[in-house]
Amino acid sequence: MSATRSDRTPRLAVLIDADNTSARIADGLFEEIATIGEASVRRIYGDFSNSRSKSWAEILARHAIVPQQQFAYTTGKNASDITLVIDAMDLMHSGRFDGFCLVSSDSDFTRLASRIREQGIDVYGFGEQKTPESFRQACRRFIYTENLLPERAVSDKAEGAAAPLAKPEQAADLLKRVMEQMDTEDGWVDLGGFGKQLLNLSSDFDPRSYGFKKLSDLVRSTQLFEVEGREGGGVRIRLMPVAPRRTTRRRTGRSRAAAS
Which residue in 143, 148, 147 sits closest to 126, CA to CA? Predict the structure, then answer.
């Protein structure tokens, strides 16, 4: 009996815009994609005679990436983007894929991401922090490529770590907002469900952007939550209870007179 989509590893089509993506992320990129599913198709688009795209040529074989050479015959016209979109639509209509990984910081792919998701297929975006919000929000999840650089992976284990993309305090409002959306009787919520709701609200949320590998460590760092391990594994969290404000009873004129 053939495996159904629910009991097999998701098949992914990885499409890379070489003109807008640094080759330095290649190792980290495919390690990240491996946590999502199987990169069944791996294609990269660009003019590999160009100095920016040329750096990719040296590592294509290592990751089994198939190059799609597009010469820039006319200045200002990006044949690579058009070819990527055409290929993406052909692959989408083949019905063979559970998800697409679009690797680019270019907002031109916003409509492509939206169209694929309209078909009920997940889209994972990968790009730099400068990527326009329109493209980031069009994806089910968006991963900043700065978090995939080799020096950032090494710095997790060493002192003098690279500065995070954002300060942990900046995550506090978002975490509190999500907790308020997940209203429960006793205030406790499962961390796994909390993380999913975070991504629903903010597709580019990533604890690594704040200097932490795990969501639980980021949550603890804010000192806004109680974090509790559960029997059999798992973690649950809730907002710290607000201590009641102490009030001082004002003494009446009669009590002041008695005291004197």
Answer: 143
Q: What stretch of H or E contains 23? A: none
Within the chain, residue ranges assigned H as helices are 26-34, 51-57, 79-94, 110-118, 133-138, 150-155, 172-181, 191-201, 215-222, 253-259
- Residue 38's contacts (CB-CB under 8 Å, 6 or more residues apart) are 9, 10, 11, 12
What does pTM read for this prediction? 0.80
Query: What superfamily does domain 168-239 belong to in CATH?
Result: LOTUS domain-like (3.30.420.610)
Q: Write the pLDDT tens digit of every residue in 185-206.
A: 888 999 999 999 999 889 999 9
Average pLDDT estimate for 116-124: 97
Alpha carbons 246 and 241: distance in angstroms, whole number: 15
User: What is the per-residue pLDDT across 207-222, written as a single tens digit (0 to 9) for each?
Assistant: 999 999 899 999 999 8
CA distance 66 to 91: 15
> Which are the contacts of 21, defined by CB distance < 8 A and separation ≥ 6?
103, 104, 105, 126, 127, 145
Domain residue limits, the chain: 10-155, 168-239
pLDDT digits (tens, 9 = 90+) for 82-106: 999 999 999 999 999 999 999 999 9
Measured between alpha carbons, how far is 238 from 190 in angstroms, rounded to an integer?
A: 9
| 10-155: CATH architecture | 3-Layer(aba) Sandwich (3.40)
pLDDT at 57 over 80: yes
The candidate with the shortest Cα–Cα distance to 149, out of 28, 238, 20, 242, is 28
